[in-house]
Amino acid sequence: MAEHPEPAAVAHARARAGGPVRLGAAEPAPPGMMRLTRADSTGEALPVWPDGVTPALLDEHQVPPVAVERSGETRRVLAAVLKCCWHDLSADPWPGRPAPVDLVLDTYRELIGRTDDLMRNWAVGALRRLHDSAWVVMGDGVVTLGPRCALWPVESHAQLQELVRRLPEPVRPELTVVPDDDLVNAENGEAGGRAEAAVAEFDDLLSGYDERRRAELVAAYMVIEHAAEPVQEVRFAALRDPALRHTLGEMLARRGRTLIQHRDRWASGYDDAVAARIGAEGPARLGVSERAVLTLVLVHSVAIPRAEGLLPEDSWLSPHPTPADELRRHTQLPIGELESALRVLRHAGLISQVKAGEEAGGYVPGPQFHRLTPAARRRLQEELILAAGPSTPLAAAVLARRSAR
Fold first, then answer.
1. DSSP structure string for 199-258
2. Residue of 191 and 240 predicted with greater confidence
3. How many Å apart are CA 183 and CA 127, to the nearest integer?
4. Is the peptide bond before 50 cis (omega within 30 degrees of 0)?
5. Overall average pLDDT of the 122-145 stretch
6. Which H or E run contains 83?
7. Number of Cβ within a 10 Å radius of residue 158
8. What percent of the chain is helix, strand and coil (3-state, nearest 5)?
9. Contact, 198 vs 32, CB < 8 A?
10. In terms of Cα–Cα distance, which of 197, 183, 153 is closest to 81?
C-alpha cells in the first residue's frame, strides 16, 4: 500500500483494532461500513461482511476460528442480554432497550440453574469480554446490546426470536438500576437508534467474476481474516490462483490489510503504512501495564529459548510458557493490575494461556503473532533486543541504525 493510505482503509483498520469508529454529526460512514446513528446525529461505523457472508463460514470449511475465552459462558450471557434487551420481537434486535445488569445476571442464573458466587464470576467475566468486543455496552449498572449486534443478518432474526422465546424468565422481572463498579469501568452511552446500510466497496473488484469464483474470493477473504492459524494454500482456489490472489490482496488493501505468506500457508495482517498511521494518530491501544507484561512473555517464551537454541530465528510463537509466578516475580504491578493486563492481552489474541503437563503452565505469544508483516517482525525483534539487553552491542547497533534513518 502507498505511504499515504486511503482514509477508508485507515478507518477499517482502526475499527478492527479498537472497535466501532466514532462519527460526528451527519458524518457518513466510509465505504464498506454500516453507520449506527444516535438521537443527536452522531454515530458509530463498523465494517460489514462482504456479500453478507459471516465468519460462520469457517465452520463450513472446518477452519478453527480464533478461540473465545470461556466461549460457552460468553454465548449464554449474550443470550441473556438479548432476552432482557430485545422487548419487541417484531422489530430488529438492535438497538433494543437498556436493562439492569442484575436482570441479566438473574436471567443467566435461571438459564444455567446455578446461584453460587462462581456463577456470578463467570457471568461478570463474560460481560467484560462482550463489552470489550462491542457485543454489549455496559456502564453504571445498565447493559444494552452493542453495535456488533446490528450486524446480525436479517435471515438470522427468526432463529434469534426462537432463542429468546425459549429462554427462561428471570425470577425478578422488574429491577431498578443499581450501579455496580465491580462489573466494568466504562462510560455509559446509548449505542444508537438507527442502522444505515453500508455503501458497497468490493463490487467493482468482484463483478468481473462468475458466481463460483466470486464465492471463492469471499470465502478466502473471510477465512484468512478470521482463522486462528495461517490457512493452507491448497484448500482455497483464491489462494492457489495468482490472479484471484491478486484480487484478494486488493480486497484486503481496501480495509488496511495485506496478505502474509508462511511457506504454503497464508494469513492477513495490518498493512505497514496503515499501522504506522494509526500509531501516529493517537494513544497506544495497549496501556503501559499490558505492554510490560507482553514484553515479559516475549522475553521468557521467545528470547531466552531462542538464545538457548530451542527456537528457530524467525519464530515468534513458542511452546515454552512463561509461568504466572515468573510474571509476578519480575513485575512491580499489583496482582489485580497484572490479572487485568493478562485478561486484556488474552482477549486481544496477543497471549494464550496453556497447560504444561502436570505443571501450572503459563502464557505464550498468541495467534496475532501469525499476522506480523516482515517489517513488523523486524521492528518487534529490535524492540525485544532493546528491552532484554539495552546495554548490549546489539542494542547499540539498533539505536545507531534508527538514528541514521
1. PPSSHHHHTTS-HHHHHHHHHHHHHHHHBSSPEEGGG-HHHHSHHHHHHHHHHHHTTTEE
2. 240
3. 8
4. no
5. 90
6. helix 71-85
7. 10
8. 50, 15, 35
9. yes
10. 183
Cα–Cα distance for residue pair 20/46, rounded to 1 Å: 5
> Of 198, 192, 176, 381, nearest to 298 (Cα)?
381
Q: From edge to edge, which strands make up the β-sheet containing 136-139?
A: 99-100, 142-145, 136-139
The pTM assigned to this predicted structure is 0.86
Interior angle at CA 84, CA 138 and CA 40, nearest 5: 50
Instruction: Report CA 99 to chain centroid distance, whole Å.
Output: 25
Q: How far apart are CA 76 and CA 63, in angstroms?
A: 23
Give the integer Cα–Cα distance in Å for 218 and 86: 31
Q: Which of 156-170, 195-209, 216-230 has the highest mean pLDDT?
A: 216-230
For 159, the grid coordinates are 432463529
**Mind listing the pLDDT tens digit for each residue in 296-348?**
999 889 888 887 888 887 778 888 899 988 898 888 889 889 998 998 898 88
Find the angle CA(104)-CA(83)-CA(47) to the nearest 5 degrees. Answer: 100
Strands ordered across the beta sheet of 43-47: 21-23, 43-47, 33-37, 194-196
Read off the pLDDT of each residue in 97-126 and give the average, rounded to a whole number: 86
Using DSSP's 3-state secondary structure scheme, residue 102 falls into helix
The phi, psi pair for 90, rounded to 5°, reads -85, -15
Q: In Å, what is the CA distance from 181 to each residue of 78, 107, 287, 290, 366?
A: 20, 20, 20, 21, 30
Amino acid at 85: C
pLDDT for 174: 61
Q: How many residues does the chain have?
A: 405
Contact 170, 110 (CB under 8 A): yes
